[in-house]
Amino acid sequence: MRDNRYTVYPITETTFAIEEKTRISQGLCYLLCGKEKALLIDTGLGFKGLRETVKGLTSLPVIVANTHAHIDHIRGNHFFEEIWFHQKDKGVFALHTDRRYTRKLLGEGMPAPVQVVLGWVAKGLLSVNTSGQYHYFGDEYIFHLGEREVAVVPTPGHTPGSVCFLDRSERLLFSGDTLCEWGVLLHLTKESCSSQVFGESMQRLQSLEADFDTIWPGHHSFPVDKSYIDDYLTCARKIVQGKAQYGITKGRRCAKYNRVLITVPAKEDVNG
């Protein structure tokens, strides 16, 4: 039976965006097929329909690669045998597989009664099956899929182990939550890096701009134009320099510049 929470959008003949959408959430996974293996970038909240959707697109062995270890990107990992993420996100993985932590995170900034209701409604989604063969890459790693290579690009900020995946042959960059149209979250005190670190990640992406044409994010509208990199870099620099313009979005303090926003802790050190 088709799961209406998943919709497939072909990017190329061998590359697919898989949108996971419910009444309260939206996220994106990506399937990249080589001649010998397929790479599934992120697994979202992992409803059963994900496995069937992927099987309907390829019969190749599937490797999972997470852009970072947040629950809404890892919860479907257990549907697949081989799973990879950056070694610096092991601590984040431990937090996001702890129901007490994710329940608190879900109700962040909301009144206590609302937190209780949300925790009850989403209690099934707060459990993460951690089975599978987990492996960890560092800042330099390449997935060889058979006449197709996908390189890890370290982009710490949202989490210490956040990465993008670069497919130079197809000129595609997959950014997870490092770069989305709406904004980037750096306010999670137990998880996020400073604005200076995030800005350095944007500089790294700038240096690679000749290698890709479009950016495929973890949430919201897709694809994202690579000119957003410049906006995020400028916004991060303004925070570090103490020149940012701040506002409140969804109850979170954020710096805004042009089309983007960066959420920050209430008292971030402007020196990064």
Automatic annotation (TrEMBL):
It comes from the Bacteria. InterPro entries: Metallo-B-lactamas, NDM-1-like, RibonucZ/Hydroxyglut_hydro. Residues 26-219 form the Metallo-beta-lactamase domain. Pfam families: Lactamase_B. PANTHER family: METALLO BETA-LACTAMASE SUPERFAMILY LIPOPROTEIN, METALLO-BETA-LACTAMASE DOMAIN-CONTAINING. This is MBL fold metallo-hydrolase.
